[in-house]
């Protein structure tokens, strides 16, 4: 492919930047914010460099539905930040979910010649990444196999935190690889089994083989079903004259399936039986999660709770029988989109899936009317099939909430759209919008990209300084100097990034600890510190109001420092109880908050049976084994000491130890009760 109008260095740069952004996203996993910042800043840099010549030309806009749809979708994601219930969390998910339309828009709006010259380089990077990703999964598989992991544990997840999402990643890569291999084979002038070797075609075939091995090694039912549902479209669209080639691919499929499932006893076959699905804890839990998610939607039916807010709202709506998931995602992007953004948000995702179906229809049944070459059709069909596979998989797992999948899907779809749409361009839109001096538009684009990158870098700093700052100990070895540095950093970030919660909480804790430790300090000064701590805690609730831990800290300040605050004990207790109840409403499974309320609202007032009933009500909530054992220990302790009923306490502890026999506090308390009972006799 000759790209004379485009310099090789620029073509390489326009391919390298999106690949670097894609690479940074691999280990983000919704947690390590610096990787999100690096990925998105790189993507914005790519957009600035790629779109700069377009703005100088007045920004001609390609004709067609998809660019307009993607722009409106991205703008919708941005608008939801203004009414999100948890705006700071939604900011990160704006980039995660919005990376798909953003990557598409940048790729689709670049100058056609530059995009055409950059794509081969980017595709080479995708091929290299396929080998790296598959190797990571296979290495994990054989390490688990060597460690004697059972069939449930023998599920590699690659760089992600979930094997199902890793399987979706492999599906996203598989279908374009097959299409390009078919194209390469069709362009040969000799037969498939001719002795003349095509090393490039062989390389593609080996890549397909390792991707299949990694894919089937995950044991993902959702991944397998998505692959099976997409395969007929691939057979239909790529089947003409490719019978022998499909035979080779299906042979590789059978071999990979047998190799990777033999150590598991082919358990995945049994897992697909209706009886197993209906009784398996994983699928049953999904059903319960979807019911709870539906209830979240019913409580916020119009504009939802905000992007990425699911894990903050789910504890309040979690059903008692659902204890198999971490509660981070709904394991169904469609219903999670509904809960987080209402019907409009779901409508965008459904429209996206419908667009993919329409693109497949055109590429398979109306290819002649498109007027494109067979080479372009193969490329476009393979790329669309890959995105289609993960879109279907999103019905049973969280897919688009994985940053690398969203970025790669957007890039794949942009290239596919260019190939099959072959868009004509409208007249430049900047003059029609009133921009006569294109430098103004360029300045606005630079300011928007720099502002977005600045906030992302600030968020990366917040995470590195206040969420994962172990590295700081090796840089600033003196504890006092480190504390001073963190306080100054927190003060700066409170101004520069006021929605970030961690700096406010850090300063609140610092003020509270200083007031509690400085006993010789005058009361007036200690009161100033405590008032400042309370103010810091309240400000931390601006970006993410649903923080039960912050409400717990506020309550503790009131109940422990009411004298210093100059408050009446009853008034301070009421404020503490209000804060604790708010925290418990956010997280009904919090044993600490429930215990604080029981102690101060019931036991301290002499309402022993009311307090015990309040504690026992917590057992009806969804509790994991250790928190349940802890709550039962609290109940037993109060039955013994407050209600003076050692027999009831013994029965509570015995029931607890039957379910959790290794819980040391329950064992110790039971021994104390037995010893005290014997001494009384």
What key phrases describe this protein's structure?
681 residues, mainly alpha, 30 helices, 0% strand
Shape: globular
Distance between the termini: 95 Å
Percent helix: over 70%
- Please count the beta strands (DSSP E, at least 2 residues each): 0
Strand content: under 5%
Radius of gyration: 29 Å
Going by helix content, strand content and strand pairing, the class is mainly alpha
Number of helices: 30
Ranges where pLDDT stays below 50 over 5 or more residues in a row are none
Major sheet description? none
Please tell me the overall pLDDT: 90
Q: What is the ordering of alpha helices and beta strands?
A: HHHHHHHHHHHHHHHHHHHHHHHHHHHHHH
Write structural notes for this entry.
It is built from 30 helices and no strands. With 681 residues, it is mainly alpha-helical.
């Amino acid at each position: 492919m000759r790209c004379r109008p485009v310099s090789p260095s620029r073509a390489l740069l326009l391919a390298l930047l999106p690949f670097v952004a894609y690479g940074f996203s691999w280990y983000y996993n919704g947690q390590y914010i610096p990787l999100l910042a690096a990925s998105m800043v790189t993507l914005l840099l790519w957009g600035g460099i790629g779109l700069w010549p377009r703005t100088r030309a007045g920004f001609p806009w390609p004709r067609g539905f998809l660019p307009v749809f993607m722009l409106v979708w991205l703008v919708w994601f941005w608008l939801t930040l203004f009414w999100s219930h948890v705006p700071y969390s939604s900011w990160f998910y704006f980039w995660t979910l919005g990376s798909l339309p953003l990557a598409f828009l940048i790729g689709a709006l670049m100058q056609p010649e530059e995009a055409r010259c950059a794509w081969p380089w980017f595709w080479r990077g995708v091929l290299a990444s396929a080998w790296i990703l598959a190797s990571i999964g296979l290495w994990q598989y054989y390490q688990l196999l060597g460690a004697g992991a059972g069939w449930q544990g023998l599920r590699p997840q690659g760089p992600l935190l979930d094997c199902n999402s890793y399987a979706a990643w492999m599906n996203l890569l598989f279908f374009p690889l097959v299409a390009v291999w078919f194209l390469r084979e069709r362009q040969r002038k000799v037969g498939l089994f001719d002795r003349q070797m095509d090393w490039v075609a062989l390389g593609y075939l080996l890549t397909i083989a390792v991707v299949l091995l990694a894919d089937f090694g995950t044991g993902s039912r959702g991944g397998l079903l998505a692959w099976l549902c997409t395969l007929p479209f691939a057979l239909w669209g790529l089947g003409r004259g490719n019978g022998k080639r499909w035979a080779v691919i299906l042979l590789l499929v059978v071999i990979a399936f047998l190799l990777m499932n033999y150590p598991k006893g082919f358990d995945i076959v049994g897992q697909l039986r209706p009886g197993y699905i209906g009784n398996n804890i994983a699928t049953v839990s999904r059903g319960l999660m979807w019911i709870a998610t539906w209830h979240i939607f019913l409580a916020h039916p119009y504009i939802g709770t905000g992007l990425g807010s699911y894990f903050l709202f789910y504890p309040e709506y979690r059903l008692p029988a659902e204890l198999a998931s971490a509660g981070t995602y709904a394991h169904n992007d469609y219903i999670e989109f509904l809960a987080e953004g209402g019907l409009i948000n779901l409508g965008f995702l459904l429209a996206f899936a419908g667009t993919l179906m329409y693109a497949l229809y055109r590429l398979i049944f109306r290819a002649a009317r498109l007027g494109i070459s067979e080479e372009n059709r193969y490329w476009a069909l393979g790329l669309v099939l890959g995105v289609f596979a993960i879109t279907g998989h999103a019905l049973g797992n969280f897919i688009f909430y994985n940053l690398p999948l969203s970025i790669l899907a957007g890039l794949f779809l942009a290239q596919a759209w260019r190939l099959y749409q072959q868009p004509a361009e409208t007249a430049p839109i900047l003059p029609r919008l009133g921009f006569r001096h294109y430098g103004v538009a360029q300045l606005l684009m630079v300011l928007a990209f720099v502002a977005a990158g600045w906030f992302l870098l600030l968020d990366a700093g917040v995470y590195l300084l206040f969420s994962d700052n172990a590295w700081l100990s090796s840089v600033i070895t003196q504890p006092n100097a480190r504390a001073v540095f963190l306080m100054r950093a927190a003060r700066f970030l409170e101004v520069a990034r006021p929605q970030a919660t961690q700096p406010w909480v850090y300063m609140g804790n610092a003020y509270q600890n200083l007031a509690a430790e400085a006993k010789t300090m005058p009361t007036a000064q200690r009161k100033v510190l405590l008032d400042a701590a309370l103010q810091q805690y309240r400000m931390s609730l601006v970006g993410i109001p649903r923080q039960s831990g912050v409400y717990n800290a506020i309550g503790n300040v009131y109940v422990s420092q009411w004298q210093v605050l100059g408050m009446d004990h009853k008034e301070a207790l009421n404020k503490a109880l209000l804060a604790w109840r708010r925290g418990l409403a956010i997280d009904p499974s919090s044993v600490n908050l429930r215990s604080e309320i029981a102690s101060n609202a019931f036991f301290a007032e002499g309402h022993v049976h009311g307090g015990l009933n309040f504690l026992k009500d917590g057992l009806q909530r969804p509790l994991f084994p250790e928190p349940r054992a802890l709550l039962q220990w609290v109940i037993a302790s109060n039955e013994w000491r407050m209600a003076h009923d050692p027999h009831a306490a013994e029965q509570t502890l015995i029931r607890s130890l039957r379910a959790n026999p290794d819980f040391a506090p329950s064992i110790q308390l039971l021994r104390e009760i037995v010893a005290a009972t014997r001494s009384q006799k």
